[in-house]
Structures are given as C-alpha cells and as structure tokens.
Specification:
This protein is α/β, with parallel strands linked by helices. Helix content is 31%, strand content 24%. The chain has 20 helices and 31 strands. Strand 27 and strand 28 (512-515) form a beta hairpin. The termini are far apart. Bound molecules: adenosine-5'-monophosphate-propyl ester. Residues 250, 296-297, 372-375, 397-402, 423, 485-487, 499, 502, 508, 513 line the site of adenosine-5'-monophosphate-propyl ester (PRX).
Length: 635
C-alpha cells in the first residue's frame, strides 16, 4: 500500500490511523516516494508548540523548482505544465511545456541575480494572472529568494505596507492588467506605493496592456529585454528544508497584516501530497483552480502542488462574467478540464444567472469539483452538484487557511461520502479537535466548538515575518499546546467536520479575509468621522457583506450623507482595496459600549442581521440608549 495515493475509504482510514500512530514514519515514507532531495534529512520532525517551534525534515537539502520542473524533464518535457487562458476569449491560449517552463524560469532567475537579488532577499511580486506571475514565483524559489506575492487588486497603501514590512528591495509588476473589459493601471499603483517605500531599488515591468506608463530612470526597467539577454540555464540554489520559501500576508483581526512565513521542504511535501489525493490527479488530467496566485490557494494549488506532481495547471487571467457568465464553462469545454476548483462566492454569482450559460457547454470532462475559502451554503452546493457535476463529480469542500499552507479537512473524492456543507474528514497527518471557551477539549461527537489542531503538519507557517511573538500570541496562546484556527466547527455523529465560520473579528467577504480593525482605521481617517465599527451580515453572493456603523464628529442634517458614504468607501478603496468596501453605512449617534469602553460588536452584528429579538442584556452597557436609535434607523 502506498501512502501517497488513496483511492478508497477503507484505505483512507488505514492511512489515517497510521499517520496518527506514527506521524514521523508516515511523513518520512511520503517524502521518500517521489521527491528529489539533494541531501536526506537527519530528523523528520522536531516540535514544541509552546515556543512555538516546528521543524520538518531538518538537515535535508533541496530546491523546490527541481522538484516542480527539472524532475519532470526526463518524462514530461513536452507536456503542458502551465496552460494560460487569457482574459480575451478570442486570444489564443498558451501552452507552456515543462521544457519551456524550465527555460523561462531559469532566464527569469538569471535576471533577478543580475539585478543583485540574492538568497534570502525578499522580492515583492505584484502581477496580474499572466505566466510571468507563476514564472517569477518559481524564479525566486530557484535562487532561494523569498517571494512575497501581493494580490494585484490591493491598493497602493496596502502594497506599500507589505513591501515595507518585509523590506523588499525589488518589485516585479506589469504596465497594466486586464479584468474583463477593464484595464487597470498597475504600474501607476506601484509608483504611488513606492513614494513611501524607500527600500525599493528596482522595479521590473512586464508588458501586458501596452498602456502608456512612466518609467523612473535608474529604478524601473522593462522585463522583456532583460529576459531576452539572459542565459537559459540557471543552477538551482540548494536550500535547507527549513529555509523560507515565501511570505504571504493575511489579515488579522487587529493590527497590520501578518506576513506568514512558509518554509521549503515540508510545504513541498504537503502541497504535493494533498494535491494528488484531493483532486485524484492522474497523468493527462487538465486541472484548473480559478483562484489568483496572490492568495494561498494559488500558491499551493495552481503553482507548487500541481507542478510537483507534473500536472497541467490552468492559469486564467480573466473573470467569470466576461464576456458573459458562461466563461468558466466555455473554458472547461475548450480545455477538457478534469478538476475544477473555485470559491463558493463564484458559484453563488453564477447560480444566479440563466442556466443557458451552463447548458451551452459540454462539461463531461469534469471528474472532481472543489470549493474553498468560506463555508459553502447548501443551495450553492446543490447547484454545483447538479448543474456542473451532473451528480457524478464529487464535490470536495476543502477547509484550510493561509497559515496551514495546504488543505487540512476535505473529502477524498470517490472515497469519502460527501454531505453538503461538510468539509468532512481530516487528511492523513492532520489531528483536528474542538475546544470550548473554558479551554476544555470536546471529546465527544455531535458538538460545536473552536477548531484547533493538536499536532504539527509539514506545511504549517513557521512564524510571522519579523514578529514571532505575534505568531505565538495569535495561534498558540488561546489553548495550551494547540494551534488555534480562529474558526468554529461542528463535529457530527460520524466525526465529519462542518466549519461554521470565524469566531474572531475577521470577516470573509467573497472568500477574502478582511480584518475589521484595518477597515475601521481607514474610515476613521476621514475628517468627519469620530468612530466606527464594522460587522458582517449575510449576503447571497458574497457570503458576508460589510456593514459599517459610523458616528460623525458633528451630526446634523446639513451634511450630504450620500456623498459622505462615497468618500468613506473611496478612502477604504485607497487604503485597502475595493474588496473591503462597505455595502451598507449607517450613521449613528453612538456605538454600544461596555463600561470598559469596548465596542459591543455582537449587538451590532445582530442588528445588521435583522435579528433584534434577542440582543441579550443591554442594561449593563455604558450607553444602552444608543441601541434603540440604531435599531430604528437600520436599513
Ligand atoms: O474561515 C475559514 C475560511 O477561510 C479562512 C482562511 O482564509 P484564508 O487564509 O484567506 O485562506 C483561504 C483559502 C485557503 C478559514 O479560517 N475557509 C476556508 N476554506 C473554508 C473556509 N470556511 C469554510 N469552509 C471551507 N471550505
């Protein structure tokens, strides 16, 4: 029996039990199976959650790009590694073979070296979903530079914060980007960000939209001429298993974004292993994950996991609604997609449209459907199952996080029976548990609690860049010797997990994690605003939308409130990005507070959800009278 590829439920249980009995042997056997190590490990695992410190495959040496590219050149050189589907549906899709990918990554790596990038340096990548994004990620990994990809929908301020937090010296970007029928001035956003990033010495610009941009002499260079002049051979820099591979920022409920640091060896093993099993990937399948590489889903399941398995991975530049709502299904038909992985928010948006958009296309190539990013509601699950999967493709509802690096709880297709809204069972090696608010472990089934993980797994983030204490505090201090996920979950009678949502002040809007504090900080910058509080409320496409309660410094009818709403959303767009805009803004005379001055978001959440029948005892509030006023003026 191979640990590496599970095909039946019985096999799952056998493998799972083995992974519990002896995790080190389990992960050692997997690491021995396919991978190219330049030096074998001395110890499989060394860990202490109290520090917290976790090390996998210590002593081992490798380069992840040799595993994702070079290793396949003997058997798969002419196989498509990356299938690029451009935004424009009439443009020709580009098939990048493993051989071509090797050449392009080596050239890019040589360009980075020529620009002075060295092992351990941080490289900020702010690119749209074009081949250069995946290639630049791999080029960094080739030379041991730490990539920090920033989603190209983030604003200049958000970009600058991320550049400065990890002291990047260089930014890789493009002139512009296409999103549906819009062209976005990406370079303009970079220029604006860099006015507050003194550490940036170089900017390399890929040409995509041919828009007129300004190039700052001495700092900015076009990428293509540098690539043309570069050698197509670049020896891989040998890394230690625990050397950082990348930093990826995620929102916290407070403070600035957290730069989650992922390391090389364990991340590679875990993303490769989970990709193979969760998507039941077979040679010649064509796998498509619709996420952006700017998020962890794209890192792990567009780039590293698929390529480590020698897969064909689709990279789609566009949006589901352009040129019409049939675009996803047109692509499935055109490339005979076998595995399709998307977010519940996309499913809900498409489910609202006419079924003709689906029925026009032949979706018979599909074998496995995936979802990620937020709980999937039953209605969306059934729509996906009936109309896309035609009731024959299992839906893998995959629960995981930027911090976990890879999928943690998910069915194994054709093995684990699925139930709508349940992420089902932990993957081999993963030991989830539920805790109550008193810090006790809930051992029985049929209970809801806070989801924690008891034992390390290879792809877990090792720290927060520059702030290990914050890492300890956020994830390891709530419950002793446990990784706390920040999510709530229910475990049913058979042990299936259903994720119920965040239990902290993070709100997931259209699958994107948004901390309330940074949005409130942005709003409070408006000169007219005294105070604000953001809560989430259910939204039929976004899952959650944002509701802002805002107290102004001066009340009075004289202010043009609609204009103020626009200004506030504009400010949020500038500081964070359009994804954080508020759907509803209610101006209030005050915010409900405890006697110690803490805003009672719980009450505001209930009001936003229009569930005011049971607000609890509000008489102990500092200002109970404001609650009535807020309810009366709710939308
Ligand atoms: O609340 C959970 C939710 O998304 C959070 C992680 O967000 P992020 O770090 O941006 O990573 C998203 C992609 C992995 C989790 O704490 N979440 C993710 N997947 C699911 C989910 N909630 C329910 N079901 C899921 N399948």
């Amino acid at each position: 029996m191979s640990n590496y590829h599970i095909k039946h439920l019985e096999e799952y249980w056998q493998v799972y039990r083995k992974s519990l009995r002896n995790p080190e042997v389990f992960w050692e056997e997997i690491a021995e199976e396919h991978f190219l190590w330049r030096k074998r490990w001395d110890t499989v695992l060394d860990w202490d959650f109290s520090k917290p410190e976790v090390k996998w495959y210590e002593g081992a040496e490798l380069n992840i790009t040799e595993n994702c590219i070079d290793r396949h050149l003997t058997t798969r050189a002419d196989k498509t590694a990356i299938l690029f589907e451009p935004n424009d549906p009439t443009a020709i899709a580009e098939h990048i073979t493993y051989r071509q990918l090797h050449e392009r990554v080596c050239k890019f790596a040589n360009v980075l070296k020529d620009q002075g990038v060295q092992k351990g340096d941080r490289v900020c990548i702010y690119l749209p979903m074009i081949p250069e994004l995946a290639i630049s990620v791999l080029a960094c990994a080739r030379i041991g530079a730490i990539h920090s990809v920033v989603f190209a929908g983030f604003s200049a301020t958000a970009l600058a914060t991320r550049i400065n937090d990890c002291d990047c010296k260089i930014v890789l970007t493009s002139d512009g980007s296409y999103r549906g029928n819009k062209t976005i001035d990406l370079k303009g956003i970079v220029d604006e960000a860099l006015t507050s990033c003194p550490g940036i010495e170089k900017v390399l610009v890929a040409k995509r939209t041919n828009t007129d941009i300004s190039m700052k002499s001495g700092r900015d260079q076009w990428l293509q001429p540098l690539l043309d002049a570069a050698s197509k051979e670049c020896e891989a820099t040998i890394m230690k298993a625990e050397d950082p591979l990348f930093i990826l920022y995620t929102s916290g409920s407070t403070g600035k974004p957290k730069g989650m640091v992922h390391t090389t060896g364990g991340y590679m093993i875990y993303t490769a292993y989970t990709f193979k099993n969760i998507f039941q990937y077979r040679e010649n399948d064509v796998y498509w994950c619709t996420a952006d590489i700017g998020w962890i889903t794209g890192h792990s399941y567009i780039v590293y996991g698929p390529l480590a398995n020698g897969a064909t991975t689709v990279l789609f530049e566009g949006v589901p609604s352009y040129p019409d709502f049939g675009r996803f299904w047109e692509i499935v038909q055109k490339h005979k997609i076998t595995q399709f992985y998307t977010a519940p928010t996309a499913i809900r948006a498409l489910a609202k449209e006419n079924l003709d958009f689906v029925e026009k296309y032949d979706l018979s190539s599909l074998k496995v459907l995936g979802t990620v990013g937020e709980p999937i509601n039953e209605e969306a699950w059934h729509w996906y199952n009936e109309n896309i999967g035609k009731r024959k493709s299992p839906i893998v509802d995959t629960w995981w996080q930027t911090e976990t690096g890879g999928i943690m709880i998910a069915p194994i297709p054709f093995a684990t029976p699925t139930i709508p809204t349940y992420a089902t069972l932990p993957l081999p090696g993963i030991q989830p548990t539920l805790m109550n608010e008193q810090g006790e472990e809930l051992k029985n089934n049929q209970q809801e609690g806070r989801l924690c993980i008891k034992f390390p797994w290879p792809s877990m983030a090792r720290t927060i860049w520059g702030n290990h204490e914050r890492y300890r505090e956020t994830y390891f201090s709530t419950y002793k010797n446990m990784y706390f996920t920040g999510d709530g979950a229910f475990r049913d009678a058979v042990g299936y997990y259903r994720i119920t949502g965040r239990v902290d002040d993070v709100i997931i809007v259209s699958g994107h994690n948004l901390g309330t504090a940074p949005i409130e900080d942005a709003i409070n910058e408006h000169p007219a605003v005294a105070e604000s509080a953001i809560v989430g409320y259910p939204h039929d496409i976004k899952g959650n939308a944002l509701y802002g309660y805002i107290t102004l410094k001066e009340t009075g009818e004289s202010r043009d409130q609609d204009n103020l709403r626009k200004e506030i959303n504009q400010l949020i767009t500038e500081r964070i990005g359009p994804i954080a805009k508020l759907n509803k803004i209610q101006f209030t005379n005050g915010l409900p507070k405890t006697r110690s001055g803490k805003i009672m978001r719980r009450i505001l959440r209930k009001i936003a959800e229009k569930d005011t029948s049971n607000l609890g005892d509000i008489s102990t509030l500092l200002n109970p009278e404001v609650v009535k006023g807020i309810i009366e003026n709710t939308f």
